[in-house]
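name: query_chain
kind: protein
chains: 1
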Amino acid sequence: MTADFVIGIMAETVKVTLLVAAPVLIAGLVVGLIISLFQAVTQVQEMTLVFVPKIVACLVALVAALPWMINVLLTFTEKLFVNIPMYIR
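structure:
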């Protein structure tokens, strides 16, 4: 195992992690920005107003993207397991 090989596996792992986390994080970001704009326009500074919509948006994004996320993780894991003999050399 060379350093380039390990760096390649690490880069692929980071890429898969970002891809899997992106839908939920983006949904939370968009809802957070919309609520922040609403609070700035109406001057309603209620702290609990932010949490419930964000949690709901993150759960909806998770449910909607879950099949795709599982597919990405399964593909990555299958590729890792299939290539184990190559890793040992």
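note: Residues 3-88 form one domain.
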